[in-house]
Amino acid sequence: MTGAAWIMLIATWSIILFFTIRYFLLVLRKPERKDDRG
Amino acid sequence: MTQTERWGTRVGLVLAMAGNAVGLGNFLRFPAQAAQNGGGAFLIPYLVSFLLMGIPLLWVEWAIGRHGGQFGHHSTPGMLDRLGRYRWLKYLGVFGLFTNLTVAAYYCYIESWTLAYVWHSLKGTFRSTEATEFFPEYLGVTEASMFALPVEALLFFVITLALNVWILSRGLAKGIELAAKIGMPLLLLFAVILVVRGLTLEPGVGGVVESPLSGLNFVWNPDLSGLTNPTTWLAAAGQIFFTLSVGMGSIHCYASYLRRNDDIALNASSAGWLNEMVEVVLGGSLLIPIATAYLGLAAVQSATAGGSGFALGFLTLPSLFNHWGWFAPIAGAIWFGLLFFAGITSSLAMGQPILAFLEDEFGIARRKAALLFGAVVFALGFVCVWLYPGGAFDEFDFWTGTFALVVFALGEAFIFSFIFGIDKGWDEITRGADISIPRFFRFVIRWITPLFILVVFIAAMIKPEGADWGAALAGLTSGDGWSFASDSVIGKVLHSGEGEYRWIENGQPTAAMIQDLTRLLLLAVFTVCAFLVWLAWKHKRERGDQ
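^ Those are the sequences you sent over. The predicted structure of the assembly is below.
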């Protein structure tokens, strides 16, 4: 692997894993709304 | 009735939506597209397209779906009808029925291949038979007649379809949601096992000829000149568009089972990013590194030259697993098992809008609707199975799985911004949101996203030969004319690159005849869907519902 390839891989994986984990944890933590019937 | 149906849990909804998006393309198409379009540099336009087209379009589709669900509509004709006062809106929504029905037909066939491969991997077929021999025989391509029926392929297609119908008939929470809750974690587990095994292969040991990291380098090494090449940008926008399963009507349908004030901003973002994680982190680290380890980089570069890893996945990998000794049958079953889970979570999402339409607009009970869906998909899928050698399958894939999606997405993006109105649209997206969406996206949704899709649409219409836009433009200005690619819309219509156009040759039907008849069949399916919408609204008017 070239240095440039490693940089692209690490940068992209970091961005994607950060948002994936952050949003999925928020989904797990935020309570579901049961109060209105729509 | 569907009005009382709801998702069981929030995480179930997100997994079902992510499962809808995660498909075979995440593992087979993405790595080849990235490697062939600038490597690591491809990821820059890819992520830009995700932020400016992918995520906004997800929000738009979730918003249209949740809005339509408040009026008891769970399929796109009714949803679009509620976005404005024009009568034609519901007919654009016909795409949301037509596409799901026809894509399900050929997609369930692909899904059945993965099931057959799981079976044959466990049975040890690929120890004695090369997949390159097995697959054409399985598809019936090696038969002398174009009309020979591949019995085993048909059998696996029926099993796959029956499984889909059974899960759909169980309902939203007990069927689709449960399947996603089982399928998605298994898919992730299988992918992680193969990624770890693949990336730890050592050169010189057990038939490994090159480091798998050379394959990873092939996917990630950035060619920055690609950033100024329109082909790279179009490939990236196209990949984002097709990986998210937008433009189908399935996202709308799933979102329509939300309550009025349920969040869509966070749920949509979570499902979208989950799809990206599976595609980029896992999909990008699996197929090409393993294939490179055993075949060498040059062979892999050649196999992925067309921008698809399909041949590697189905023709090469099963035989390469033989190097893994006792683990070979399990590795084969894991690889095709993960593709199967990726497939079934998507095909279920294609079935639900059809069931919902039959339930909402015609009052048909769910089980009966599931059987009806199964019967129609079987009839259409049979054409793909039977006439695969003649090109019927490819026609389905192109007109329904590519062209119709872009047309519908383009239409809904304009309707949402300019007929429903961006003010109401923005309120719809942000109501009940559990994350704050930067206001900048209001501008993006109104102008940038439709423009992005328009560019993808125009590119699909006039894509030049070899996807070389620079050469095509040069040809146009030098008087040589524009050379349409055989997989552009215009190229397809004109049967470009297929030799002399004839329906009968030496007394036998030609592939051109089968392609044209398949197109007529698809047109007939669209017309029937449109007629059903017309009939449903006629009944509504008679009942005074409209």
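Chain B has a mean pLDDT of 93. Residues 328-362 of chain B form the longest helix (35 residues).

Shout if you want it in another format.
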